[in-house]
Fold each of these.
Amino acid sequence: MPYHLFKCSESIPEREKHAVIKGEGEDLTSALPLGYLNTIPGSISERGCAYCGAKHVIGTPMKDVIHMSHGPVGCTYDTWQTKRYISDNDNFQLKYTFATDMKEQHIVFGAEKQLKKNILEAFAAFPEMKRMTLYQTCASALIGDDINAIADEVMEEMPDVDIFVCNSPGFGGPSQSGGHHKINIAWINQKVGTVEPEITSDYVINYVGEYNIQGDQEVMQDFFKQMGIQILSTFTGNGSYDELRGMHRAHLNVLECARSAEYICNELRVRYGIPRLDIDGFGHEAMAASLRKVGMFFGIEDRAEAIIERESARWKPELDWYKARLTNKKVCLWPGGSKLWHWANVIHEEMGIDVVSVYTKFGHQQDMEKGVSRCEIGALAIDDPNELEGMEAIETLEPDIIFTGKRPGEVAKKVRVPYLNAHAYHNGPWKGWEGWVRFARDIYNGIYSPIHKLSLLDISKDEIPTNVGFETQRMLSDVNLSDEIKNSPTLREYSGKYDCLKGLREKTYPEYLTKKVSEAV
């Protein structure tokens, strides 16, 4: 078994079985780290809690809802606005967060009165909002507050409102994934089947496990609508509370993030006979395969093929341009659960990037199985890493870029390694054909940005380049420009200061560059 014990974790020998180096010819029986277990004492985990998994990941993207946390204000503050779950109602769910602000006195005497008072205040402050989700935290769970009873009491007094209760305290699982499961099951137990939706198409789906990060969902919805498919509900990006109550009338559950939302799909299949179909919107080939599968299910493959042909012809040349410049670059793929395997092979096949490490903080064994099987030989796979292990991996592997969340990403920046925010994106959306090219552009900009090279200079002793365009010059030398333009002192002087490179995405435009330089002068 090719286990790997980090030097920084030698005092925690149990950590050895949570990291594996993928060897030549090894299968998953000998190259799989332990996963989805309680964090080992002494290892300062960066995991999210079960409450975070329920509220922050699944619940908050619902748009027409007051999201109320029954607990200390820090719990709701920590899960507020850290992802770009955009919506079409002016992002109400991002602008506002609500908490009962439990204090020490409430721990001693109970906080049910405080909870009811806050619920009524919230509805009074936003009378247009008639729906609410209540999230339990560790504090309110430990003292035994009956939030279900309070919710029923308010709904009896205010018949026009509806409240969903999610009992998912932070200690409800080894990681945030425990919260995913709890809110999935709570929603189908409490709310699914309580509204009858209007059916307007012969092809009706629930789009599940999609959270509309920077508009990802809108890209996919557009493709489905072009195929004549009605999207009954989206669980839960830009999702409407009442639309999600009618999930039981769909013909098919189309599942994107299997780690966060497979639970409700499985229950919908058992209780209502709705089949589940897993898709992947990341990557050109994966996107094409996904639309083909949905088209085959409904017998409308020709509509899917029309979209695939059009989008591939438009965006494949641009993706190839970036692949030529990203091939053999190294990445540490350290995102959430599903992107671990959604991206592991496709960024290598379609962008030429080598995956030298994969990790997950909350993924299950199945996620690591898929990720390890799809990444390159020699890759380091880590379950639930701490900050020191991440730093050691960066020093050892020397990646060109890292795809991860904001917290480990900011640590990477401190050691001069660029990162892309795999959770909330830099310049999304990243799904679909155009989105995947946008992702490649962000990777290219991250790796080739002169800022990172400048950050390696020690101003106390290193010679600082006085030519502001030194990096731009090197990039220009790689493209087919005439000697007259490449050697132009005007271009050398101003190319780093002005945006003269926009025309270089697919080919070079000497006239454009000359014109822009003359205008700058």
Amino acid sequence: MALKDLKDVTYYDLNNEINIPVNNQIPLEKDHEALEAFLKENVTANTKQFSSLKERFDFLLKEDYIEPQIVSNYSFDFIEKLYDFLRNQNFSFKSFMAAYKFYAQYALKTNDNQYYLENFIDRVAMNALYFADGDEKLAMGIADEIIHQRYQPATPSFLNAGRKHRGELVSCFLIQANDDMNSIGRTINSALQLSKLGGGVGINLSNLREAGAPIKGIEGAASGVVPVMKLLEDSFSYANQLGQRQGAGVVYLSVFHPDIINFLSAKKENADEKIRVKTLSLGVTVPDKFYELIKNDDDMYLFSPYSVEKVYGKPYSYVDITEEYDNMVANPDIKKFKVKARNLENEISKLQQESGYPYIVNVDTANRENPIYGKIVMSNLCSEIMQVQTPSVINDKQEYTELGTDISCNLGSTNIVNMMNTPDFGKSVENMVRALTYVTDHSDIAVVPSIQHGNHLAHTIGLGAMGLHGYLAKNHIYYGEDDSIDFTNVYFLLLNYWTLKASNKIAKERGEVFFNFDKSKYADGSYFDKYLNQDWGPKSDRVAELFDGIDIPTKADWQELKDAVMKDGLYHQNRMAIAPTGSISYINDSTTSLHPIVNRIEERQEKKIGKIYYPAPYLSNDTLKYYQSAYDIDMRKVVDIYAAAQAHIDQGMSMTFFMRSTIPAGIYEWKDGRTDKMTTRDLNILRNYAHKKGIKSIYYIRTFTDNDGEVGVNQCESCSI
């Protein structure tokens, strides 16, 4: 039997039976039966067998499946020792979805796609050997973290580590266009190249002059940002990673850009095909001034990037609109257009209701909390990357006369449930930081010099977390209650402290710090003031009990770290970010990111297969009531959780809002006596609340419509397990 010839398998039907209650009982045992059937009928029957580990590695090397460096960096005795350790950990998948996702998406297969060439242990070994780069102790450490699922590299890293024919290891890219044709052309070329390599691409268009602006003195000649958006969408569609994956991109525009209405309109379902963008994501960068104008119900002015750059001598994105707003309004040399702030706010919310877009980046919040010298002007495809950039200048030969800095980001996630059981929190984090550092050090995106330049200077990584709701439910804590916020605060305090320790240690070992470290708030010590001026430890006995056995940094610990960082620096400009973990959550049997679950039994539509059901991790009669759907939770509770984490995270977080088109009574007090339908007002209030709480970005608005319901265990009010 081969993978393409699978017939008469039982695991799909067994998995589907989870969603069919039997006497008001959720038949979770069917998922375990599906898992066993999948391993027997699919995996065991279709895995290429070898008589020894040596024979397997010889085959993989001879047939060009793995990089020779993987083996040449180590003695084979050590590789066998690593495998012995991994086998002795007795790893097993806990759900059908976990095993299915791993073998469908991550496991190395023969070139003809007929047989599996590795199991989970093999992939863990490849990651450990690859990211440790010959360091045996580190390889064992990384293997220990991944096999116990305390650490999960992001999909590009986990999938491609060690493979001879692979995509890039990094997750996403951020680039920006300046207001000239050379820069626009280079941006489109960069989008093509980066889309081909893999990962999502974020592009800032705020610097481009608006439609109708002059070109070489000819009024009305400029076409604005929408035609550039169309070109970029076509570029992502064309460069689709050999047909394996659709290219993905997001474009960002300032809310004060004169093209903002046309920008938003391009995503509407009824937009003219000449301007409509179907697959391109939209994001809006929002300064504090916008929220102030909304609050006061004022008119607002949209400023021409062309005239702003002429007056200020720098690209539009690099002008502080909140600080300069009144001066710009009063300046006759700056062309401006008047709109009503609340009308624009409603337009944003209308589009979010219809499409889920635009993402919102509270750019002043991001910069106010940024410890790095420079300016954050945009984010990435998932809105969690917040790093400083500098613009490039390109001449008529498409050469860089000034090479700016753009961004590539490589990510990984801690699994909160398993990290809370680690024997050494600090050592675990250090192993993760070193694994991520390998990706940063070996990333070489020469085809886009500004990204290569930025990466070489900044050495950035993004360590995050997943599984929060699962951990809370397992420990009988409701999502959004005080103890859940308290726990989130302490967990990310720890993650921040230990990533700082690891980065400082690497800087000291190498005698190297990130570019402009001396101009950062780390170098002058001011970053650490908040940890020295107040106690960030657990507020309740319940949360203190959860962290029993895990050392919480004291003020003395923070003072010692402050002194060490001021003396020897940090290797990484940025260290943390919360990505919207998808398939890596499934193989970890984890809830996604920091979000509440959507359903106790999640339904996934898989191509060519149909529906697969995934029970929430640790689902039992004891945890059932703690698994409230995100669609039935006040989104202010989600904001409060994320705000607790954001206090310790130097970059951003992918925070999604989950809304029902008909909102259940009692969730939002402002709905009392009003319509129960979701309105733009609801989104306006929540967006303003998130800004007030210090949230840097809102990723996506997911709406559950009245006709999206499904008959099954999630609608069974009295179901038990």
Amino acid sequence: MEYTEVLTDKDVEYICKAISGKVLKKQFAAFSKEFSKIKPGFRPYSMSDKEAVDLAIKNFNKRFISGYIDIMLKKWIAEIQVNIEKLEQNNINHEDAVALTLIDSYFVDNVQLYFKLIGEEKESSYLLNVCNKIIGFMQNKINRYDRETKKNNDYDEAIKKNEKLSVKIKNLEKDKSDNDKVIKELIKDKNDVGSQLSEYKNKLEKLEEEYKKNEKELKNLRERANHEIVVDKEKIKSKEYDFISLCEVLAPDYKGIEMIERYADLTESGEFEVFYCDESESRQYANRNKLYLNDGPRDIGTMGIWMWKATQNIKNRDKDFISSKFVKELNPIEILFFHQKDEKGMINILKDGFEKNGLPNLGMYSVYVEKGKYIGFLCNVYDFEKIGNKYKLKSSVITLNKYEFGENDFFKLVNDRSFFYKMELGIPREVISIIDKMELIKNIIIDRNSWSLFKKAGKTKKEEWRFLKNFLQELNTDSICSEIAEKLNCSLTIAEEKLKDFISIANDYINGTTISDNLIKEVILSDEKILLRFKNVIHEEWEAENKIIIQSKQNEIENMDIKLSEAKKELLFIKNDKKKCEKELSEFKDKLELKEQLAEDVENAVTNRIKNAQTKAADFIAEMAFVNAPVKSSYDSDHEETIAKKELIFDNNDAIIGMQLKEELNEDWIMTLDSIEYELMEAGVIDRLARPVAAYLYANYLNKSNLLLAGPNAEAIAQAFSCAVVGQPGRKLIYRKSIGNNEYKSQIRKGEIIIIDDPFNSEWINKLPSIMSDTEAFYMGVHPFIEDLQIEPKSYFNYMIPLFTDCIVDKKPRTIFMCSQKIEDFNEFELDYKNNNKNILKEFHLPVLTKLHIQISIANMHIMLEDDNEDFDILFAILPYAYSTMQMPRLFKILKDDDKKKINISKMMMKYITEIYGEFDE
């Protein structure tokens, strides 16, 4: 038996506090993976003891927590029972042994819980007796302590005090005797009143229970009645047409004639009768099984209701003439069967998605539960959304209408499709909520308070607790209650109560106060002696338990002092070295200024000499013919070398960003992806696109697929990405008079992000391929205008893949980003090089290397996002490349080709791209 199976929420809270947050944090550290799932972004020892206790209480259902508590309970109870047996062997009766043992146990403040765990439910009188014994034994210990302290006092004075105490005791005993008589009489009266009260209370409870049951049934019935399907009887009658039939749209025949096939006729009572064609009669008039399609949908396989009549053909009296009209107001209920064990599995299928060629307007999504019995959920086609090849329920669907039916309630057609005989199914058996109400309320509140809005509040670490405490109370509850009422299909009063419950739960969690805490506090503070004793005991036990840790921390402090002393010496050495370097730099600048002045003087002298030579050319030529060839000075050599070396340097002097160190360390790639997402929003990226953009950038970074960001906020996005991934702003590479290429490459650090400024500079564009061949770094070019990419060499994209920012940003960037640090054993994402087949890329002219980079980055982006939404393939990779290489007409043709669909892009994304780039103009 596991003790945790019988624990209530209050019991769990008591035990977790008894174990203490310090011990629980050790358990969290031992199960770090499970801990990261319930508290992502945090380390166990970074929490306070109270936070650890609250986290254990909240996640008690997790196996690594409940299992540990069960082990601790077994250990405590085993120790208690061993001690009780020892005391009983020393001729102490059982109750006294229990009381003496529980004094020093974790159950001293909750005796009832101990008996509950050992399976011995005791009456209140027995528990009261044990508690009195515990108090008595504790008082005896205190008295013994008092007697020992009084040994050094004067004996005669002690005797006098003892005599006075004896008189007081006799008086108290007399008063006690009188009070006992009064108490017995009061207990008798209480028992009489109690029995009557108990009787009335039982009657009241039964009435309340019956009232609640009736109220619940009435509410359920009303809710079900609101979902009843009612068909207007007038719609199934027609004076103009003879028949109302269930038909299916057929493929056009070889002549191109469109027809529908008749399967069943609708009677005036609103039920279908399956139609059977009489093979011995001519297939005309009422015996027709195929009708001409005059009106309604043309999609092959569509089933619906048509009104029709057959009259004599004027041109040929041996034939009939068909008139038909599609009745869109009548929707037959089609049954779709799924192979699932129960209704829960069916609901999961609808929520997770399923593959179908098409859905009916009104469908019963059903499972077979037992012999002759089915359970189904009635859904409208507009309740679903198509993602890829799957249909799944929209997030706005809160409830499902459940029906039960049998084999005699429906008919199956020769085309293997099944329909209900009746157009009306009545009220549903049950209205099932598929989303937790509190979860729904939480999502509504979160949707209204995004990350950006939260950070704009400008709160600091020191006042976060005060901000969080008042955060929920300051929400605009009027509109929230309206939205909750609409989605939960309830009144505004109930919606307000649900919101108050949610805010109350959140406040309890934020405050961390409980009734038991206050009760224990009052008991301890009521007696100074008990308070002093508890303080001493706790202090001594704490020192004893943590003696090794205290000594270890003391040693660490001493080691840190030694290291600090060494660091101070090293800092002094560095400062002296810095002064020396500054002095050398100053001398170098003086020499450089002298050489520059000398160069200017020489240039002026040469200019004057040439002017004189123009007036006296003969003299100048004669003179120069006999002048010795000038000797090249060391200055001239240095100057020519400097001119020849218009090379590359790093420059962050004009950086537009600041940085702030993130307190928590990232433990794995998921936490890093979170950091990238948040910082991209700070750089101006649209909130809903921040996660996909983060995954695409991170996949390119890991694959060393250099990127060219073109458009607004390009440099801010690059800097935000660098801060989130490597914990520092990216260094900008610019073109100036400086050191050579070899010197530049020696400054590269493994894994860092380098931002290339002005990548289309004509003086150094040819140097970029050799620069980016360095696989130690990740390069991100930035350029403000996407139109310039069309006039640059297409081969440029072998080295940097374009990404447009004008379609992913909606605001100006901030100037300060959070720098994220990684732990030593960081769990990095492993690239998948196999799942990289993108058929659409075959339709474009692009080099093999570029194609391979795009395929790998897109495939791993989908793995990180855990979805297959191809909207982002177009937006991030394919569209920028097609635009830059002037292949937009080809992309437009592919996306508009419905017959040979190479990629699935949503209508929303198609509209979004068209709004930005027009109809895919070149």
